[in-house]
Design goal:
binds S-adenosyl-L-homocysteine, two-stranded antiparallel ribbon, about 25% strand, 7-stranded mixed β-sheet, alpha/beta, about 240 residues, globular
């Protein structure tokens, strides 16, 4: 029994040690991710490619998924939620194209990964997460990694973040059947909003641009995101 325990302990320590050694290799995995998953699929914006190469995605996934941190698919992050596929993060970022002085609102902090990518490309990032445990862990993680221009709050993103409005860009990383009205009010004139619209299956990733208080829609591609909780979900149940 004792030998078995000692063996398991050695195995555990060895895995941690290998993971630490592998930490350097993640740089290669990140470069390969940018080359094979992003550039080959048409992501061109140099700033976005740079940010995707900078942010250590393996710091945003649970320990048991570290080996898959740079894989070409979403990953579970706990509480029934996921961190999006790298390509989708890059695509959404490229489309809203945040500028260094922009104020960005994200709905659905999740792991904080998308917020970290945005933080390197914009002035300030405000991110709202409805699951308090995820909001807390993402805030702690972003703070530890010194993403100083990201602010996280727990709450229903349907309501946005009125105190920090108006925003140049809004990115919604959970699917919803319509744009929450408060978010339209919190978007600047000529501001960009991107979201997965849950109009049937599959969902439609759409870009909206605010033009004299009208939201002009452009379809991007089909996607699959977790559904928005809170007010939108309750409305759906009442229908
Ligand atoms: N952007 C995240 C992934 C988002 S997954 C990342 O980079 O890791 C979608 C997230 O939206 C989940 O964490 C989910 O809890 C959150 N969410 C769902 N409904 C929400 C709402 N009404 N307000 C804020 N966050 C919400």
């Amino acid at each position: 029994m004792l030998w078995k325990r000692i063996f398991l302990l050695i195995l555990f320590l060895f895995s941690i040690f290998s993971l630490c050694l592998a930490a350097d290799d993640f740089k290669d995995l990140r470069r390969q991710m940018v080359e094979n998953q992003l550039k080959k699929r048409g992501i061109k914006n140099k700033r976005v490619l740079w940010a995707m190469n900078e942010v250590k995605r393996h710091k945003f996934v649970p320990l048991q998924s570290i080996a898959y941190a740079y894989a070409d698919h979403p990953l579970r992050i706990g509480n029934g939620q996921t961190i999006s596929q790298p390509y989708i993060v890059a695509l959404m970022t490229e489309i809203i194209d945040p500028k260094k002085t922009d104020r960005v609102l994200e709905i659905g902090t999740g792991s904080g990964y998308q917020a970290a990518v945005l933080s390197l490309l914009s002035g300030e990032v405000y991110s709202v997460e409805i699951i308090p445990e995820l909001a807390k862990s993402a805030a702690t993680r972003l703070n530890k990694l010194e993403y100083k221009n990201v602010f996280v709050k727990a709450g229903d993103g349907f309501l946005g973040w009125p105190e920090a409005a108006p925003f140049d860009c809004i990115i919604i990383t959970c699917s919803t059947p319509r744009i929450p009205e408060p978010l339209i009010a919190q978007l600047k004139e000529a501001g960009r909003l991107i979201l997965p619209l849950a109009e049937g299956y599959p969902q439609k990733l759409c870009l909206f641009t605010k033009d004299k208080n009208k939201m002009v829609k452009k379809y991007i591609t089909d996607v699959l995101f977790v559904p928005m909780k809170g007010k939108v979900e309750q409305e759906k149940m009442r229908d």
